[in-house]
Design goal:
The protein is an alpha/beta fold and about 250 residues long. The chain has 7 helices and 10 strands.
């Protein structure tokens, strides 16, 4: 069951649509559930809502999966440039994106300090860290990685799917070097062979492997998923859903 409601995002001065998945037996049960927060929430469940006409297929997967959880899909800005700024954690200079003054920390603080308390008070959740995850793809993967690193006391797990991290590698290296992470932290990384030219895919592969090595040195549990033929789109990312779900919620 998916319900939709608007929730005010003060930093943007506008409402953002929340696409909330509840287990089908939610109304007939007294259970509490873990919560997964996901970016680009309109692209998760229904093709009719998705920007490019193809959703992630998450509703069908969850309806048939043995583990019951709540998923709070957070719709992004309808402006592509604003989405980039809201999902980028750092001030970066990029050949592709130009001069980006990232505001992702404000976005994550809104989730942590405003949206999450509302979800926990309104629905039957397990609010503690071990039952709280975050996930996203592309720029949403970038902010998901930032979230689990900087707010590790809130999020115990993250799916970092085809993350747009190359322009931000140096600050991410510093983030990991300076951070302290609980050893039960789980981070899934993925990328595909068809996400760009061979040189770009090579650099993304090397960057993700570097981050994994540094995270493992900090006792973080990681999983790397390379999708042969995988492209930068929901059709490819849908294939990965069972793998990262199982890894995060072992």
């Amino acid at each position: 069951m998916v319900i939709k409601f608007d929730y005010y995002f003060a930093d943007a001065g506008q409402n953002r649509r929340i696409h909330l998945y509840l287990p089908d037996d939610y109304s007939r049960s007294e259970e509490r559930y873990p919560v997964l927060y996901m970016f680009d929430g309109h692209n998760l469940y229904y093709d009719s809502d998705a920007t490019y006409g193809k959703a992630l297929g998450l509703r069908e997967f969850l309806d048939g999966w043995h583990k019951k959880l709540i998923v709070a899909g957070i719709e992004c800005s309808s402006d592509d440039v604003e989405r980039l700024h809201e999902y980028c954690p750092y001030h970066i200079q990029s050949r592709i994106y130009g001069d980006v003054h990232g505001r992702a920390d404000r976005t994550v603080r809104w989730i942590v300090e405003d949206l999450k308390p509302y979800i926990d008070q309104t629905y039957r959740t397990w609010p503690f860290r071990e039952a709280t995850a975050i996930a996203g793809y592309s720029n949403g993967g970038q902010i998901s990685l930032y979230s689990v690193l900087r707010y590790n006391h809130i999020f115990s797990k993250a799916a970092v799917i085809s993350p747009s991290i190359l322009p931000a590698m140096e600050p991410f290296k510093d983030e990991i070097a300076q951070g302290e992470f609980s050893p039960d932290t789980r981070i899934f990384f993925s990328w595909g062979s068809g996400e760009g030219d061979p040189d770009m895919v090579y650099h993304l592969s090397e960057s993700i492997r570097y981050l994994e090595k540094k995270l493992q040195e900090k006792q973080v549990q990681t999983y790397l998923y390379f999708q042969e033929g995988g492209c930068h789109n929901e059709g490819s990312w849908e294939i990965q859903v069972p793998t990262w779900m199982r890894f995060l919620w072992l």
